[in-house]
């Protein structure tokens, strides 16, 4: 049986289903999957998890000036592995050891990631350094099709790149959303003291790149145009105090902290729009699965999954100004026919970007890298 090891610095909740299903799919095809992961003890997102069959190891943080580096003592788990898959991250020291090991022993390694840091200038030192290592692996698991194109343009063989189509379990989210009734929605609105349907929702980490101040300024303008507008903020992070302070002076702004599972889905059930003017990534899939169109901006530092949003089809991308963003949200709040068209687009996208597709893509890439033919046939899917 071939053996594969994936090393993750962090294990967020949304990855649990993926790793469980990938492990099952690979086992059916004669491949044993192991997972080693760490945690960020300083994280305020409250979104990290544990996995019974995986191995937790303490991650050591090393300060080098203003830079944080991470060492995961995962060497005991390397022997006997036919392939080791790591996140493509400059700060993960284990990656450099694996590159040296590959150079002298021929052991296969693969990268999984974005290709470059999309929250920084493409030509800054960090991305220049990252590009220097782009081709020094045996296989690439690219988050999206645009990441694959970037890798190919920078010299990595196209036939050794798997487009993962990064996703979460949208099927389960859709089922949970559809299981909620109108009375469930009214009950939550009553708890929050909301007597309006014009509700905007933010769900995610609360930190600088998410541009919470931008969101609050826009919300003030929206409220001036849509008199019964309410904004609900779900999540936690280093800038949570900004939301709490704003909510203390705005009776229409509701901060409810982090929510998971069905509790989080309930907030999508009462919202008309998903508001994310800053960094947008996997959260766009939440909006698809829960039929709540995203309104974002052409912010230059989105994550790769922003390519799933089709402007005017399953969401809206505005100019990157508070005024324009507020105007577009206000217009959508008052144009139900247009909003419903976007909802239909969300339903279509939710069926395209699924965890099942991601698992099959990833498993197929591993089998190709190991020169194995599927024992259990993987279905053809849209890429």
UniProtKB/TrEMBL annotation:
Identify the EC number(s): 2.4.-.-
Top enzyme category: transferase
Glycosyl transferase family domain sequence ranges: 185-344
Keywords attached to this Swiss-Prot or TrEMBL record, sorted alphabetically, are:
Glycosyltransferase, Transferase
What is the species listed in this Swiss-Prot or TrEMBL entry?
Rhodocytophaga aerolata
Q: Which GO terms describe its molecular function?
A: glycosyltransferase activity
- Top-rank taxon of the source lineage equals Bacteria
The name this protein carries in UniProt is: Glycosyltransferase family 4 protein
